[in-house]
Amino acid sequence: MKNIFNLPLSTLLVTACVLCACGHPTEVSVLSPDHSLAFTVHADGNGALSYQVTKDKEPVIDASRLGFVLKDQDTLASHLEIIGTRSYSKDETWETVWGEEKFIRDHHNGMVISLQEKGGSRRKMDLEVRVFDDGFGFRYCFPEQPALEKFAVADELTEFNFSGDHDIWWMSRSTPYYEAYGQKTKMSQLDTAYTPVTLEGQDGRFYSIHEAALTNWAKMNLVPSGEHGMKAELTPWSDGMKVYAEAPCSSSWRTVTVSPDLAGIAASRIMLNLNEPSKIKNTSWIKPGKYIGIWWILHKFQYTWHDGPRHGATTKRTKEYIDFAAANNIQAVLVEGWNKGWAGDWMRNSEGFSFTEAYPDYDFDEVMKYAQSKGVQMIIHNETGANTNHYLKHIDEAYGLYQKYGMHYVKTGNVNMLMDGKEEHDGQYAVNRFREIVEKAAHYQICLDEHEPVIPTGVNRTWPNLMTHEAIRGQEHDAWETDGGNKPEHQTVVPFLRGLAGPTDYTFGTFDYSNPANPQCRVRTTLAKQLAQYVVIYSPLQMASDDPSAYRNVKAFDFIRDVPTDWYCTKVLDAVIGDYVMTVRKDRNSEDWYLGAITDENKRTLNASLDFLDAGKTYLAQIYADGPVASNESNPTSYSYSELKVSKGARLQLKLATSGGCAIRFKCLE
Ligand code: NOJ
Ligand code: CA
User: Fold this and answer.
1) Separation of CA 56 and ligand 2 centre (Å)
2) What is the crossing angle of helices 364-374 and 315-327, to 10°?
C-alpha cells in the first residue's frame, strides 16, 4: 500500500483498510484504544457513504448513511472516494474549572478521512472520527475549495441504524424548551425526539446519542427511519433550510456512548472531550455555588414580578434573602421582577424590558452594595422574552453595570415560542445568538444560568462561564402545571436523559408544600427526596428554591447548607431509568462524600455498599431519610435524621417511601 494515506505504523495497528481497483481504500476503520469498538467508514465511489460500528466484534450499528442534501446542488452523500486519511491518538488528562469530576481523561484514536466526489464538480468533504473505549463521535468538515463555497444544508442524512428495535427513552420535540417528560417506547415509535436519547438495547447494552460542541450549526433531533434506525432531523430556519454555511467549516459532533450499564453511560465524558479547552484564561471569578431567590413565591402567585401591592422584589425582601444566604453557606441570591417591563403582556412587549432600571421599591444600588458588603453574589435576572435583538442592544450597558458592582451572575430567560419573533430556539440562528451572549458575558466576567436555552452540548468546557441551563421540565412545573406537578418517575429519568447533556437548573429544595393559589398542584416527592436530588441531579449552581421562612429551624436544611455543588468525582452506584437512582459524589474541596438515592412512585429498599469511601478513614454518616410514615401521597414532609459512624465496606439499607429519597453526608472525621 502506498503511503498516501498517512497511516503511521502505530495507527495501522488500529486501522483496517480495504482498497478498490483504483487504489483508493473503500473502507477504513478506527479502533478504540482498548480495541473493543470499531468504527468503519465505507465509501466506494459509487453507492452511499456510510459507517458501521461493532462492539466486541458484534455489530451494534449497521450500515448507516452519512452526508447531506444541499440546496440547488447535487446531494453530497454518495459517489465519494477516500482520497486520504490522517490518524492521530490522544491520551491526556485535563482539569475541569468545575464539574462532576476534577480530572477527565481524554483517551481516543482519531482519524480525518478526506473524501472527494469521483465525478461532477469533485466536491470535497472530510469526516473526522474519534473512537473512545466508551463510545465515539464524528463530525463533517468542509475544507476550503472552489466547488463548495457558500452553501445551504437542506437535510442532514446521518443515520443510526441499530441491530434491533431497542427500547428508547426520549423527549418529544412537540414540547417547547425541552420541558418534556422522558418517555419509553420502541425506537420505531418515536415522533421527533430531542437528543439526548437513551437506548436500552435488546443486546443488553445501553446507548446514548447526543451531540458535542454545537456551534454555528442547527440542533440535531432524531426521527425513526428504516427497520430499527433513526435519522438526524436538524432544527430548520423559518425558511425551511437547516444550515447556512461557508467553507471552511464543520458540523457539531454526533456522539454515541455505549456501556453495559447506566453507570457507564452517566460516567462517559465523550461530550466534554469533544469540546475545545477553555477560551477564558483567568477563570478565578467562575465559582460554582448555591443560591436562593425571589422566585418560588412568584411561581406560587403569592407575589408578582411586576410592581404593585404584591411586588416580590422589594429592597427589603431582597436584603432579607441576602442576610439568610450570608448566614447559611448560600453563595448567591437570584432576584426576579426587579426591573421595569413586567407589567401587562411582557412576552408581546419584550422591548419594554429594561436591564438596568429598577422598579421604584427596589433600590438597585442599595441592594448591590448590601450584597457586596455581605459577601453574597446577586444573580441578576434578565428575561428577554426571546427578544435577543433588544437584549443585545442593551447588553453592554447592563453587564457593564453589574460588573461595576463586582457581580458575576446573570440568569437569562427566553420565554416565547420563537426567537426574535421568527426562529426556533435551537436552530442555527438561536445557537449563534446564544453564543454571542455567552461571549459577551465572558467579556464582562458574568456566569450564566440560561433558561429556555439551546440544550447544552458540552460548550461549557470552552466557555465555563456558561454554568447551567434549564432545558428541563423543572420544579417550576410543580407550582402551576395542569397535571398537578411533575410525576414521581421524572427525576429518576433526568440523570440518564436530559442530564447527560450537562448541568441542569432543576431548582429543588421545596420544604413548604402549601400552594394556596393552585392547591391541586404541588411538589410530588417526599422532603427527603428533595434533598437527595442535590446529589442525583447535577448542576454547578444549585437552587434552594423555597422562601427562607420555610428553612428556618428545620433540621433538614442542614443538608442543603452543607452539600457542595462542585465535585472531585462521581459514581452512579445503582439505577434503573424511570425506577430509582443511587449516586455518590466526593466533594472537590474536602474529604467528605455525599449519597443521594431517589425512587419513583413505588416505595423500595436499596442497599448501599460503602465501598466508595476512602480506605483508612472514619466518617460520620448524617442520614436524612423518609420518616417511617412518609409517603408522597399522604405525608410527604415526614423525614428522620440519624447519625452513624461508618467506614469503607460498610453496608446501609435505605428505605425509600413512595416518591421518596435518602440523602447522606459522610463527614470525614479523620
Ligand atoms: C421561565 C423560567 O424558567 C423561570 O425560572 C422564570 O421565573 C420565568 N420564566 C420568568 O422569567
Ligand atoms: Ca422554563
Assistant:
1) 42
2) 10
Q: Are 483 and 527 in contact (CB under 8 A)?
A: no
What mean pLDDT is reported for the chain? 96
Q: What are the angstrom distances between the C-alpha of 186 and each of 54, 170, 482?
A: 22, 10, 28
Distance of alpha carbon 167 from alpha carbon 202, whole angstroms:
8
Report whether 568 contacts 548 (CB < 8 A).
Answer: no
Set of cell numbers at residue 60: 451494534
Query: Mind telling me the catalytic residues?
Result: 476
In the reported structure, the alpha carbon of residue 155 is separated from the centroid of ligand 2 by a whole-number distance in angstroms of 29
- Mean pLDDT value across residues 352-377: 98
Q: How many CB atoms lie within 10 A of CB 635?
A: 17
470 lines ligand 1 (CB under 6 A): yes
Q: Which residues pair with 209 in a beta bridge?
A: 197, 256
Strand partners, 598: 581, 661
Q: Is 201 in the pocket of ligand 1 (CB under 6 A)?
A: no
**Ligand with smallest separation from the Cα of 299:** 1
**Structure confidence by residue, pLDDT tens digits, 249-273:** 999 999 999 999 999 999 999 999 9
CA distance 486 to 632: 12
Residue-wise pLDDT tens digits, 546-568: 999 999 999 999 999 999 999 99
Q: How far apart are CA 307 and CA 316, in angstroms?
A: 14
- Mutation choice for ligand 1 from 417, 425, 476, 510, CB with most ligand atoms inside 8 A: 476
Atom of ligand 1 nearest to the CA of 451: 3
For residue 346, the CA-to-ligand 1 centroid distance in Å is: 12
DSSP assigned state of 145: B
Q: Specify the 3-state DSSP secondary structure of 104.
A: strand
Q: Which residue is listed with cell 420518616?
A: 627
Q: To which residue does cell 503511503 refer?
A: 3
* Spatial contact of 464 and 272, defined as CB atoms under 8 Å apart: no
**Nearest ligand (C-alpha, residue 306):** 1
- Does 383 sit in the ligand 1 pocket, CB within 6 Å? yes
Question: Mean of the pLDDT values across residues 301-306?
Answer: 98
- Contacts of residue 318, defined as CB under 8 A and 6 or more positions apart, other chains included, come to 294, 333, 335, 338, 362, 367
Distance 299 CA to ligand 2 centre (A): 11
In the chain, the amino acid numbered 583 is T
Cβ neighbours of residue 655 closer than 8 Å, sequence gap 6 or more: 603, 605, 625, 626, 662
Ligand 1 atom 6, closest CA: 413
- Report the atom number in ligand 1 closest to the C-alpha of 383: 11
Q: What is the pLDDT of residue 6?
A: 45
Residue 60 and residue 258 in contact, taking contact as beta carbons nearer than 8 Å: yes
Ligand nearest to the CA of 386: 1
